[in-house]
Amino acid sequence: MKLQVAVVIAVRALMRNRQRSLLTVLGVIIGVAAVIVTVAIGTGARSNIEATISSLGSNLVVILPGNTTTGGVNAGVGAASTLTVDDGLSIAQQVRHAAAVSPLVTLRTQAVSPYSNWQTTVAGVSPAYAFVRSWPMQSGFFFNDTDVATSAKVCVIGTTVARELFPADRGVVGQTITINNVPFRILGVLVSRGHSVMGTDQDDVIVVPYSSLMQRLSTSANGPNIVAALAVSVDAAGNVARTIADISQLLRTRHRIIPPQPDDFQVRNLADIAQAASSAGLMLQILLASIAAVSLVVGGIGIMNIMLVSVTERTREIGLRMAVGARAGAILLQFLVEAVVLSLIGGGIGILCGIAISAIAARVGHFPFTVSLPSLALSLLFSAAIGVGFGFYPARQAAHLNPIDALHAE
């Protein structure tokens, strides 16, 4: 029997019992849809995490103050006031693979424009910050080293601040805003970054020269040179580990730390954080895909049961075919094709349902909608394999029926 003829006969046989055929493939539909949704959500979520981490900067290493212990009470990370602007300059000059370094000091305060006011975060940084964070300008330009040296009253702002302080969509560049009663001229607007993984608005920020913030906006009780963090961009991903070791050694020397004294700073590699988050997401994705695969197996068992029932119902038909010359291979092919057609129909419907659910989930979850063609092809191939695997036993049973017994069956 030719394959095309077997497919036609299989479709006609399945159409005679449409409701039973649909219920039979329901398990395959659910299984395939679940696999596609799981893969799509997992891939989209991991892509979102990786994009968010990469948006933080180019091979970014962050140096934070360490913890302090007073009277047996551990104040936690960031409590020590040990990082200085000079530490950052030394790292830039002496650490080989440090491509750029920016100090970071922050202040939460109210900003006022001629049209509105808005409470936001003011970040004091160096001109290298735009490179370290890989954060281009939407309009205007970033401040320069001269602005830092003169503690210039200039700033660049995020799109959220621009929208809130200038609601009438006026030209922002060149306007003046007031921060803690100090006027600052806007040099430019940063490209929108959206929300971070933690849900904070990255565009709700005013960026000023760190010298301007430390001298004009805030008087630190810990000293005029103390910073909250140092952001370092490494020249290549393969040099991150070596750079962290060099930075740690340099800061121990500068801070006169002698082992076994603990470090008064912490160096954090955001690439490790991204890898850990990605690995955790991948493990969860594999777990959910395994659970979805169980649905496919259950669907395959349903196909096998229904095919066995079909063989029993069509025993006389099988006997008649054998009596007129049909060989066992043709009978085997006929029922095997029926099982494969059932599973492929279920797989096709499952793919459509999976794509629709994935699109809805991506819209609700605000992550990229990712459904790859290889995953769709693999799902369809797996459906066919389910049909062959679970349809072979009923087909073999039909092929090995005794023609005489089959003709006398009721």
In words, what does this structure look like?
About 3% of the residues have low confidence. The longest helix is centred in the last third of the chain and has 44 residues. The chain contains 13 helices and twelve strands. It has a six-stranded mixed beta barrel. Strands 2-3 form a two-stranded antiparallel ribbon. A hairpin with a 2-residue loop joins strand 8 and strand 9. It is elongated. The chain folds into two domains: 177 residues, no CATH class; 183 residues, no CATH class. The protein has 410 residues and is of the alpha+beta class. 36% of the residues are buried.
Topology of this structure?
Blueprint: H1 3-16, H2 18-55, E1 60-65, E2 69-70, E3 73-74, H3 85-94, E4 98-112, E5 117-125, H4 129-132, E6 137-140, H5 145-149, E7 154-157, H6 159-165, E8 176-179, E9 182-190, E10 205-209, H7 210-217, E11 229-234, H8 240-254, E12 265-269, H9 270-313, H10 315-323, H11 328-365, H12 373-399, H13 403-407
Parallel strand pairs: 5-10, 7-9
Antiparallel strand pairs: 1-11, 1-12, 2-3, 4-5, 4-8, 4-11, 6-9, 7-10, 8-9
Helix pairs in contact: 1-11, 2-9, 2-11, 2-12, 3-8, 9-11, 9-12, 11-12
